[in-house]
Amino acid sequence: MKLKLISSVLSLSLASVLAACQTTPSTSSQKEAIHVKQHLQQTLQEYTWSYQPQQQIPPIVLSFQDNRIGIYSGCNRMGTDFSLNQNTLKTGNVISTQMACEPELMKQEQFAASLFQNHELTLNINTANPDQPILTVHSADGQQYQFVGTATPETKYQGQGEIVFLEVAPETKACVGVAAQQCLQVREIQYNAQGLKTATGDWELFYGQIEGFQHDPKLRTIIRTKRFTLKNPAADQSKYAYVHDMTVEQELVK
């Protein structure tokens, strides 16, 4: 009886060891797959990605947020849901606004929509140059497209920006910063939850630039900006950086 008991215990122990040996690599592989997916998704979200098929027209730009891709190619705003399985991107139906644009832009837009319309795409990211990483998209038909990354403002300034609405006057004024220059005139606009204006600030000279905003002396403009607090501003520099997020109103002035 004792021999049988010892034999049974040894058999059970050996079976447990074999089971452990078999499951450990599987568990390790699962953890590695999760790590690869998380790293890829984080990198995708830290940049916007541009691919320019033609030099004469705007590029195709991708932005990733949570489980959604925003696609813009110079005309309509498009987007689709996506999921990741390691470096495989699975997309859903592409939805779009319905503006009519120039034929070349529409043709490029159709290409961008077809690339991401209900497909499984293989992604590879080269981060050897973190300022301009390269995202290679391998399409379902075997073609490869390289998108160049540009850090999002949140990545660049290492934090979340505060939403600030600014009215920008058509006229600039002479001002002195590091040197004599022309400064924008701006005033802050505040809105309530219903989108109605509740307060308008005083006009002030704006030293520096609003990233992504092109001033037009023929237009009175209200823009939505993201205001980031700089971590180590220079002595002659504002403690804030402003990034153009959206144009809210434009009015032609005579």
UniProtKB/TrEMBL annotation:
Keyword entries, A-Z: Signal
Residues of the DUF4377 domain: 167-250
Domain of life: Bacteria
Keyword Membrane: no
Signal sequence extent: 1-19
Pfam assignment, any one: META
Keyword Cell membrane: no
Protein name (database record): DUF4377 domain-containing protein
InterPro entries: DUF306_Meta_HslJ, DUF4377, HslJ-like_sf, Hsp_HslJ-like
Organism: Acinetobacter populi
Residue intervals of the DUF306 domain: 52-124
